[in-house]
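Hi all, posting the design record for the shared folder.

TITLE: backbone redesign
STEP: 1 of 1
STRUCTURE INPUT:
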């Protein structure tokens, strides 16, 4: 009986041991699932920001590759001019700016021991913002047939927007995120600085938040004002040309006068502001983001990457399309028409001299 009882006890012990191990495995599985569930919310902020940076850079470089032939045709082969210098500066400074932005976005450890390095992309963004504003003012000045009142109104707005962006960059602190790594039974956390485009207001200064919001307001006001002025000019052109039976199509007007550029920039900034107001928790003392997965909305002015990419793309295409049509970004509609009419008159009053016979100069 003893061996039998010993066998029963052994079976009971094995059964109990199996139940305990099963319970431990179940709890371990639950722990693993819980960790993965938490990680899905923890990793999303960094990953979504990286996807955002990657999408912006892919859009920018893809369009850059597409427009390289136009750049050579309309810029490099035309010689030096102020517009060519501004356009080349805008395109290639943006390329240089994307390199540290993407590097810092995907390797935040690069900036652990450096406080100035994190603000390099923001500084480059302000330089490109100045170039974008210069093109907007030049084109709007041309649309309004070089009326000086346009310059008197737009230049103060532009200077205010640029100064506020510089102030935000100087006073902002860099967003800190926690990177969590998981191994069986262990969760380790590493505190990393996020991509440098995600600079936030200084949590210890209410003035920093006011400058931050003022930068948004100034940029959106400037872009919206440019958009409304160009819209008013388009309506005026449609109304005046209707009586002459020479009414151009709306698509041609939008393409020629850069209306599409103004509309996209204004819309992009308004959407960005809406996301900022929706996902930024102003009631928190440390200015936390209400939904971390949308942390990329924390940006200022045209320094956010997608608006930056769109502005460079659309300005480049506007200049190229205008030159394809035989005009320049600084040339107004009346000036362009008078130049074309003068060229037609010269052709009418100066016909080719050899009309009666073939040209024998090559024989």
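Okay, here is what came back for every position:
SEQUENCE:
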């Amino acid at each position: 009986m003893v061996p039998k009882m010993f066998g029963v006890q052994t079976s009971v012990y094995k059964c109990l041991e199996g139940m305990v191990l099963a319970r431990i495995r179940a709890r371990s599985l639950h722990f693993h699932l819980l960790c993965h569930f938490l990680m899905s919310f923890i990793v999303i902020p960094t990953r979504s920001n990286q996807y955002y940076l990657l999408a912006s850079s892919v859009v920018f470089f893809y369009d850059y590759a597409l427009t390289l032939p136009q750049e050579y045709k309309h810029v490099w082969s035309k010689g030096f001019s102020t517009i060519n210098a501004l356009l080349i500066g805008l395109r290639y400074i943006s390329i240089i700016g994307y390199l540290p932005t993407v590097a810092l976005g995907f390797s935040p450890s690069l900036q652990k021991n450096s406080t100035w390095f994190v603000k390099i992309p923001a500084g480059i963004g302000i330089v490109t913002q100045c170039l974008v504003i210069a093109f907007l003012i030049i084109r709007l000045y041309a649309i309004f047939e070089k009326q000086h009142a346009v310059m008197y109104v737009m230049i103060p707005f532009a200077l205010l927007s640029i100064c506020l962006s510089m102030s935000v960059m100087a006073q902002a602190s860099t967003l800190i995120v926690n990177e969590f790594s998981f191994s069986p039974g262990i969760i380790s956390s590493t505190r990393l600085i996020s991509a440098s485009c995600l600079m936030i207001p200084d949590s210890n200064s209410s003035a920093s938040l006011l400058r931050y919001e003022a930068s948004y307001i100034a940029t959106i006001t400037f872009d919206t004002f440019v958009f409304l002025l160009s819209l008013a000019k388009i309506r005026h052109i449609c109304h005046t040309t209707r009586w002459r039976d020479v009414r151009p199509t709306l698509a041609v007007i939008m393409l020629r006068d850069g209306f599409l550029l103004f509309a996209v920039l204004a819309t992009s900034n308004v959407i960005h502001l809406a996301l900022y107001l929706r996902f930024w928790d102003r009631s928190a003392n440390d200015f936390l983001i209400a939904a971390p997965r949308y942390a990329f909305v924390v940006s200022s002015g045209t320094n956010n990457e997608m608006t930056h990419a769109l502005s460079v793309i659309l300005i480049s295409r506007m200049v190229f399309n205008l030159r394809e049509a035989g005009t320049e970004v600084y040339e107004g509609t009346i000036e362009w028409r008078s130049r074309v009419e003068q060229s037609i008159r010269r052709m009418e009053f100066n016909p080719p001299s050899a009309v009666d016979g073939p040209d024998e100069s090559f024989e």
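COMMENT: The longest helix spans residues 2-74.
Let me know if anyone wants the other runs.
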